[in-house]
Design brief:
Elements lengths: L1 H31 L3 H36 L4 H4 L13 E7 L4 E7 L3 H4 L3 E3 L11 E6 L16 E6 L2 E14 L13 E8 L9 E12 L1
Parallel strand pairs: 2-3, 4-7
Antiparallel strand pairs: 1-2, 1-5, 3-4, 5-6, 6-8, 7-8
Length: 221
C-alpha cells in the first residue's frame, strides 16, 4: 500500500515539475521577445543572411570578371615577342595603318612633328612600335588622313603592317579628351594601339579636344 502511495506521489511531483517548467519557458519566451536580446538576435540572424548573400554576389562578380579576362587573354601568337632589328629614324616610313571600316590605307611616319604629319599618320616616338607590348600611339590631322575617323568606333578593326609583321587590333574604347590630357600616352599592361586626332571634326580653327580610339591587339602574323 505504501509503495502505491509513493509511486502516485512521485508521478504527481513529476507532472507538477513538468507543468512548472512549461510555464517557466512560456514566460521566458514572452519576456525574451520584448527585450533587446531578441532584437539583437533577429538583427544578428539578418546580418548573417545578408552577409551570406553579399558573399555569394561578390563571388559571382569575381567569376564573371575572370571569365571576361579569360576571353581577352592573348593567344600564343599575341604573346610572341615582336622584334624590330633597329629603331627607325625621325621621318622614316615604318609601315601602314589599314582601316577596313573606311577602306583606307595610310602611311605611318615615325614622329609627330608637323613635317611628319603632313606625310601621313605620325607615330609618337616615345611610345613603343606597333605590335609590341605596351602602348603604341598614332596621331593624324582630322582634315587630312583622319578626315573620317569619327566613323570608326567600338568593335571596329585597325590593322598595322610593319617590317615586324601584321598586327590586328580591335577598338575597345572611344574617348573624347582635352588636348592636354596625358592619359592618352600612358603605358598599358598589354599590346595596345591608341589613335588620336583633333576634335570636333567640323571645328573651324584649332580644335580644343581630341578624338581617341583605344584598341587591343587580337592577332599578329
Amino acid at each position: 500500500m505504501k509503495r502505491d502511495e509513493i509511486k502516485g506521489r512521485s508521478k504527481r511531483v513529476k507532472r507538477l515539475l513538468i507543468l512548472s517548467m512549461s510555464i517557466a519557458f512560456i514566460g521566458f519566451g514572452a519576456w525574451f521577445s520584448t527585450t533587446n536580446a531578441a532584437t539583437f538576435l533577429k538583427g544578428y540572424l539578418l546580418f548573417k543572411t545578408t552577409q551570406s548573400d553579399a558573399k555569394a554576389a561578390t563571388e559571382l562578380v569575381m567569376a564573371d570578371e575572370k571569365e571576361q579576362a579569360a576571353e581577352t587573354e592573348p593567344t600564343e601568337s599575341e604573346k610572341k615577342e615582336v622584334v624590330y632589328l633597329e629603331q627607325p629614324e625621325q621621318g622614316e616610313n615604318i609601315g601602314e595603318l589599314i582601316i577596313p571600316k573606311l577602306d583606307a590605307t595610310l602611311p605611318i611616319i615615325h614622329g609627330t612633328d608637323e613635317e611628319e604629319l603632313e606625310k601621313g599618320v605620325g607615330h609618337f616616338a616615345e611610345s613603343v612600335l606597333p605590335g609590341m607590348e605596351d602602348n603604341s600611339v598614332l596621331s593624324g590631322h582630322r582634315d587630312t588622313v583622319f578626315r573620317r575617323l569619327g566613323e570608326v568606333g567600338k568593335g571596329d578593326l585597325l590593322i598595322v603592317e610593319t617590317v615586324a609583321g601584321k598586327f590586328t587590333y580591335k577598338v575597345r574604347q572611344v574617348r573624347i579628351v582635352d588636348e592636354d590630357d596625358r592619359t592618352v600616352i600612358v603605358p598599358k599592361p598589354k599590346a595596345t594601339l591608341t589613335v588620336s586626332t583633333c576634335y570636333p571634326f567640323d571645328f573651324v580653327g584649332y580644335a580644343p579636344e581630341r578624338y581617341i580610339l583605344v584598341a587591343d591587339l587580337v592577332s599578329s602574323e
